[in-house]
Amino acid sequence: MNEPFLDEKAKKILADRAALMARKERDLNANATSNLLAFYVGEEQQYALAYESIDKVIPSHKITPVPGVNPLFSGLLYHNTEAWVVVNLHQLLIGKPAKSFSHFILLSEDHYRIALSADTIVGQISYDETVELVQLTLSETGQSYVRGIYKNNIAILDKKSIIDLLNLEQVEWN
Question: What pTM value is reported for the model?
Answer without folding.
Answer: 0.75
